[in-house]
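Hi there. Long-time user, first ticket. I'm pasting a complex I've been working with (about 962 residues overall). I'd like to know whether the download I got is complete or cut off, because the file seemed smaller than I expected. Thanks.
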Amino acid sequence: MNGPPKLAKFLLNLLSSCEKHEAYVGDIEEVFHDRAESRGEWRSRWWYWREIIKSLPRFFRESIRWRIAMLRNYILIAFRNMKRHRVYTFINIAGMAVSIACAIIILLWVQDEFSFDRFHKNGHRIYRIVADWEKYNWDGFDKVPGPLAQVAGEEIPSILSVARISECSRKVFKYENNVFYESGGIIADPSLFQIFSFPLLRGDLETSFREPTSIVISESLARRYFGDEEAFGKVIQMDGKPVTVAGIIRDIPPNSHIQFDFMLSTAAQKNYGVNWNAFNSMTYVLVQAGTDVEEIGPQITEVAKNHNSPHVQMGVTLRLQPLSRIHLDARKSPEKFLHLVDSQYIYIFSSIAFLILLIACVNFMNLSTARSSIRSREVGMRKTVGARRAQLIRQFMAESIILSSVSCLISIFLVNLLLPSFNRISGKNLDFFLFELNQILGILAIIFVVGFLAGFYPALYLSSLKPVFVLKGLDGSGRRKAVFRKVLVVFQFSLSVMLIIGTAVVHRQLQYMRNKNLGLEKENVIAIPIRENIGAQYDTFKSELLENSGIVQVTAQNYLFMTDSWHTTGVYWEGKDPGYTQDVVWHAVDYDFFETLKMELKEGRFFSPEYQTDQEEAFILNEEAVRQMGIESPVGKPFAFALNQSNVKKGHIIGILKDGHYRSLHHKISPHVFHLNRDWTYGVILIRIGGERALSHIKNVWEKINPLSPFEFQFLDQTYDQQYKREFQIRRVLNYFASLAVLISCLGLFGLTSFMTEQRTKEIGIRKVLGSPVSWIVWLISQEFLKCVVVANLIAWPIAYYALRGWLQNFPYRTHIGVDIFFLSAALAFFIALLTVSYQSIKAATADPVNSLRYE
Amino acid sequence: MELLTKLEELVLVAVLRLGDKAYGISVYNFIVDLTGKEVSVSSVYFPLERLVRKGFLSTKIGEPSPKRGGMGKRYYKVTKSGVKVLQENRSLHETAWIGVSDILKS
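Hi, the file is complete. Here it is re-exported in full:
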């Protein structure tokens, strides 16, 4: 005969656990057998199951009641303990609150970065065409030739819509008395509004762009010029020419990677996007649902090849990049309308925030286990009256979760306090409301993760104490626990040292980049854009400026070389292999260009009005260009330059420039070609000034010649520094992180030493009575921890070295990670640790032994 | 004086009447036979244990048997205070019912 159903019996054993359990299980089994005999086995089994299920509601009611009762007791004990040991409570809560605040801020930031471009209705079907070219290390170059968009849209059926976007130069807008510069413009295809969900409030896709003089503006731009008036259909002056507001869009949400205030249609631009040679159109496509995106890339490449795109024939391949990847795909110098972030930094900062959280958890672990002797009696008592280990573990976990909840509450205040300054550094606009579901869930997750991380080791350790030992007053812990605590201290300080080294290296790289000899003098040079009347009257402008003694030199260029570079492959020289393409950066400059910027000549001469032929046939190259083209003794050699087939300039090389950095050090030195230009309609004027006084003179001259738009200028050295904005931000954030890590580790160390000295009061007293000097006792206490710091340094060095070497690979020109940085940060960590430890150890060492030995 | 619930009272009477053989199942069977209602086995444990806690019943672990899956029986015995409380409750009943049977008849 069979017994009762196995699963049911198992459940019964699982649920009932009181001491009467045996009798009950026996009883029910006896009835089971009786019933099986009288009414058949199946009915009896059925009955057995029913009995168990019927008892479930009552079981849960009872057990939850007891659990809540126990939980109340745990909470009471936890708060009592926190109150009794105020210093340790403060150390734990302060450290945790600060690190949780830090983690919350980073999480908010990460959440914000990942929220980009989620609002587009067709988001998952939007892609950008990017280019790969192995030969020149193009990996997903973000722009493609202008004509590609149309042919790809027409010839590939799965592409539903195509839109190109290009940067638009700054414009002056004027409506009645409102005159402002507007820099947030784009030139784009109207289909942009079909692909992306940028709602047009007024205007119509079909008609808005029919006239070349039409413009689409954002709501806030409309408000700036028209106030409460109706803006739609109004005529506004743009760079002195009238344009009609043919569309108004809702302001672009801040979490869109494309940002603009006004949009001009590509159709209104002369010769926009007809050149297969120039990779200058950012091109977005909307594909049909269910299309295999992998296949479209080769199709586009094929289409481009069929239309004789020279670069594609030379090996460029095209592919589609999903919208979700674009915001995180930061480029060295992105267009102004793009809002990108380097995903590398998201990972770096999230992991640092996590590590700081870990440091605070380690504090809790260390202090709780070190102070286990205080709690051991309680554990002993609880065990003797029948607490099981699982219950004790639950108790200590509850304690650490209580602690993390309290810290979390404090950190919410901290976050609200710190968020404005974080927003200032990062240029973000983060909010912390606590009313959003995911934020509440995030906070709860942090509370539990931190509580668990901090609590699991102390809980396991404390619950393992044997009542026989602890109630006798013996410390069952022994050496192993002390070693583990040291390992934790080493871990904390390794992290701190790594962050200190990281901060130092970032700082040094930044200094290196700012102070590196660029091959030109950027100080005291201002750049002003050529606008309206200035171009036509450039020579008058220049000579009037030079009348003032405060102005040293004046020159002009077709674009600001420091923030942009215009590339071309239309260069020809003697002995060039016809199949070879040479990419160069080209500049059209005025006389005095090199003199104004104090660039150095290697051989030959600069452009000079003394040579009549310079305007038509003189070229200056830099060393890198000569090297790449492989021209022997270049000065005097023939050279030709062509932007397109109809516009070829033939002449000679007259001078070679020494290599210099004309852009930020993120960029490798490229080959440069300069030619002379005397005819200005656009570009920048560069002026070397003797002092601040000259500025007012320049302003006067500007206003006399060009009253149309306000005078504006930028200092070249500031422009240069601005390119390191990201590195400056990183340095500031790292500074905060490193200080926090050190601070929290020191808090923990402080707690640990104060506890250790407390434990050793008697020993210290006896030592003093026997004649030990104060310095020896201080050393005795400090040396244990200082050893830890030394070991921490040894661990941190190689890790920091490899991590930072990786980071420095981002820069073609980089500083070395010197040995001095390691020793300096080691010294710093050592000094801080010594300072922390010495307070307690000196206090203990100078205490009167009478006090510590009085009771025995 | 301690007031007993109906079930507690019945259980206490059952244990008294069953003598040495009073354990979970015999008490259960007694109640099922008496009332004719098939309650769940576990429902007699709660009054039993409550009575043990109040000191009206004492317990003893008995011999295990294969029929019980190797588990021992838990025998119950009414204590002195248990007997006393039962008497009190009975006299309470009788006092309360004086004259009621006449009203019910009419």
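A couple of notes from our side: Residues 6-105 of chain B form a domain with the Arc Repressor Mutant, subunit A fold (CATH 1.10.10.10). The CA atoms of residues 19 and 98 of chain B lie 31 Å apart.
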